[in-house]
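Please go through this chain and its backbone structure tokens and walk me through the local backbone shapes. Keep your notes short.
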Amino acid sequence: MYVRRSAAVLAAAVVIGAAAPAIAADSAPSASPSPAGSPSPSAPAKPTYPAELYGTTDPTYDGVWRQSLAMLAQNTVGVKPAPKAVDWLLTQQCADGGFAPYRADAAADCDAKTLVDTNNTAAAVQALVALGGHDGAASKAVTWLKSVQNKDGGWGYMPGGASDTNSTSVVIGALAAAGEKPADVHKGGQSAYDALSKLALPCKGDDGGAFAFQPDKKGKLLANADATAAGVLGSLGKGLVVSPGKETPAADCTDGGYPSSQQAAVNGAAYLTEALAKDGHLTSALPGAEDQPDYGNTADAVVALAALSGADAAEKPLRWLEQNSAKWAKQSGPAAYAQLILAAHATGTDPRDFGGADLVKQLNATGPAPQAAAKATNEEKTKDDSPFGVWWYVGIFLVVGIGIGFLLSGRKKGPQA
């Protein structure tokens, strides 16, 4: 998914001198011995993160991203996120409209060291628009995104960074969600679609039709499945949430100079279809490690294929995910559950019975209880507050009723002559 590659970019920025948000922790040793079972006074304090945040892992690079995905996924199934979860997302926005992945001290103003980026901002826009009632924040974020568009029409992860397929595509989704026409958002006479077409590989040769993340140091385009799934959605002008497209037969990759946005999407889908044909999943190849199934990119490919050609086009990878993704999702947390829910939504599949798993329930459990669940819990608590059960009251009323009945009966008869 976009954030995995983006996190690497952001991590590199941190290494070369940008300051990441700090997690406040009291490192002073305790003046008294620690109680049994508590950490040693010399042990470093384990960082804690806001209760309003989905997931419990370090949010430095993906806090806003996973929060936005979680709420988008919930929204597709009619679940209303807890207001405090939405409020937390809003606090991550800087005054200029951009979003940082995670600001530990949201009360402090953003400054030059605040790592604001396009991916987290674009995801936040899509979530806020979907939830409704946050037009001001979404509009400011869109204005910021437009201000950091590159001259080739695309976007990089960080403002001023070279355009890449993933960032450009997720920004297209944000623009479309906010009611903008991505084709009309220009910089230097170029639109986002122009930028994407230049990142698409020609059909001739290996990996034809795929998208590259960025050109390599020599300017060569190398196929990237993650970027291709993103590029298909971006070329279609769609965001992270899609409904099944119109059922169409599989199309072949077709060249013609820089392809139109529609043809670029078709070409990318052709590449994904071929890559998925053998095993039903995409593969993650890391240097020095054996190839492993790539669950996240497979879920993204399902969304891309379904958006272009309907649910049938994504059936094989969808079934593979239903059978194999449970362990990965549990280990990976809210963003993974959200990806699977969005894949289910894109294909018209029930996410509450996804290979026997209730993805919605599992996602909800990673963050603050959504509104409906919180209301039900409060009502249940109110019912249980009394030390006596409902049937105790029923019994009392029955006894009282019987007594009143005898009393009235006696009055009716009156004294005997």
Observations:
- Residues 390-413 form the longest helix (24 residues).
- Confidence is low (pLDDT under 50) at residues 11-39, 384-417.
- The beta strands are 186-187, 190-191, 282-284, 292-294.
- The chain has 16 helices and four strands.
